[in-house]
Amino acid sequence: MDNKSIIDVLIETQALQNGHFLLSSGKHSKEYIQCQKILQYPKHGIYLANLLINKLRPLNVDVVIGPALGAIHWEVFLALALEHVNSDIIGIFAEKVLIGDETVFQLRRGQKIEPGQNVLVVEDVVTTGNSAKKIIDLVLNLKANPVAVASLINRTPDLIKFNIPLISLLDIKLETYDPHECPLCSQNIPIDKPGSSVIKA
Ligand SMILES: [Zn+2]
User: Fold this and answer.
1) 160-200 pLDDT, tens digit each
2) Residue 64 sits in a domain of what CATH number?
3) Where in the sequence is the domain holding 151, given as residue range(s)?
4) Is 1 inside any structural domain?
5) Which of 180, 79, 62, 158 is nearest to 117 (CA)?
6) Do residues 149 and 127 make contact, with C-beta atoms less than 8 angstroms apart?
7) 27 C-alpha vs ligand 1 centroid, how far in Å?
């Protein structure tokens, strides 16, 4: 592939969408980046993962983990890119489980992180960073080392989100609204919930 940027790929795949969206953070937005429009193409996924490889190589990653479902493809592409650095690397995903009114992330399906492993937490799009923070907590509870968060897109670059490095391919500021002050809600525009899946425990 030519020397493309993520912007070229966003445009080519029509991943940047306009409408009225409910984000997994609970906020509303008139723009949404549907990364699956990009990541459904292995050629784009592998290409974009390799753009981060120089930053990720020194981290000695043992495990790549992302929240299901949105980050699953990205997690696999990053694990594939890093497989050249560590042939025993694993790529796994954490699932959102609703316990009472709280959602927590759990490892299911026999997936494991061992104490002391270096863990790269990945997200397709970081907005509030809440999902990644919950996964960082999961990693710490398992006595492993979260080494960085790697995302395709950081939607709120001025917010400090983590106490580990955030490595993002693209910082792009898209406006979000609290539901009670959303201009699209006040125009009664129907809302679309494009992401997120929760298992009821
Ligand atoms: Zn709204």
Assistant:
1) 789 999 999 999 888 889 999 999 999 999 999 886 555 55
2) 3.40.50.2020
3) 6-200
4) no
5) 62
6) no
7) 8
CA of 132 relative to ligand 1 center, distance in Å? 24
Each residue's pLDDT tens digit, 38-95:
999 999 999 999 999 999 999 999 999 999 988 999 999 999 999 999 999 999 999 9
What's this model's pTM, rounded to 2 decimal places?
0.86
CA of 34 to the centre of ligand 1 (A): 18
Ligand 1 centre to CA of 193 (Å) is 11
Query: Exposed/middle/buried for 118, CB within 10 Å: 0-12, 13-18, 19+?
Result: middle
Closest C-alpha to 27, from 193, 143, 197, 186:
193
Token pair, residue 27, equals: 């906020």
User: CA-to-CA distance for 30 and 8, rounded, in angstroms?
Assistant: 21
Q: Is residue 49 part of a domain?
A: yes
Q: 186 C-alpha vs ligand 1 centroid, how far in Å?
A: 7
Domain count, the chain: 1
